[in-house]
Amino acid sequence: MKKILIVFGSRFGNSKEIANFISKIFEKVATTVELVDLKETKRKNRPSVDGYDGILVGSGIKIMKWTKEPLAFLKKNKNMLSNKTLGLFVTSMIKLTDYEQAKKDYCEKIASDIGVQPKIYDVFGPVMDFSETSNLGSLNKGILKLAAMGISKDFGIEIDLNGLNDFRDWDQIKDFANTFVELVKKE
Fold first, then answer.
1. 91 neighbors 15 (Cβ within 8 angstroms)
2. Which residues, other chains included, contact 5 with Cβ-Cβ below 8 Å and sequence gap of 6+?
C-alpha cells in the first residue's frame, strides 16, 4: 500500500478544506494518508518525508505569496523530495482572472526557485467570505473586498460583497487528486 503525506498552510481555511477533501479521495483508493497542518503542528512533531511515496504540498496565496510554513517545508526537504512523487497546489484569486499565469507564478516559479520538481501542480479557486460570520479580520476583509471589486469590474465576475463566494471547482480538485494517486502508484 502506498503512503501519501499531505502538508499544507492555510490562512483562512480554504487550503485546509481542500487538503481534507483530497485526503478523503486518497483514502477511498486504498492509500495510507497523513494530513499535516504545518501552521498548527510544531516542527518537532512533523513527520519525516522518508516513509512516504508521495508528498502533496498546499498553500493559500495572499499578496502574491505562499504561506511561510509550506515554503519552509519544501526548502528543508528539497533533497529528499527528489525521489518522491511530489505535487503542489495553491488557492488563489488570480485563478479567476488568469489561470495559466497563476500556475506559472505560484507553482512553476516556486518549484524552480526552491529546486524541486513536482510531477503535478495546480491552482484552485478562492473562497471570499464577506459575510458577518467570516473568519477574516476587518483589515483582511477590506483588502479582499477591494480586490474583489476590481475583479468584478474588470472581468465581469459576479461577487457578493456581503456574502460567501466559493469559486472552488470540486471536480477539478477531484481530478487533480486522482491523477496524483495514479502517479504515486506508478512509482
1. yes
2. 33, 34, 36, 47, 49, 52, 54, 55, 56
Cα 70 to Cα 56: distance, rounded to the nearest angstrom: 10
Q: What kind of fold does domain 3-126+168-186 have according to CATH?
A: Rossmann fold (3.40.50)
Cell numbers of 100, please?
Answer: 495559466
Give me the mean pLDDT over the 27-42 stretch.
Answer: 87
Please report, as a single letter, which amino acid is at residue 111.
A
At 74, give phi and psi (nearest 5°): -60, -45
* Domain extents in the chain: 3-126+168-186, 127-166
Per-residue pLDDT at 135 = 82
According to DSSP, residue 156 is labeled -
Q: What is the pLDDT of residue 46?
A: 86
- Distance between CA atoms of residues 141 and 106, nearest Å: 22
Q: Which of the residue ranges 7-21, 30-44, 84-98, 166-180 would you say has the lowest mean pLDDT?
A: 30-44
pLDDT in the model for residue 33: 92
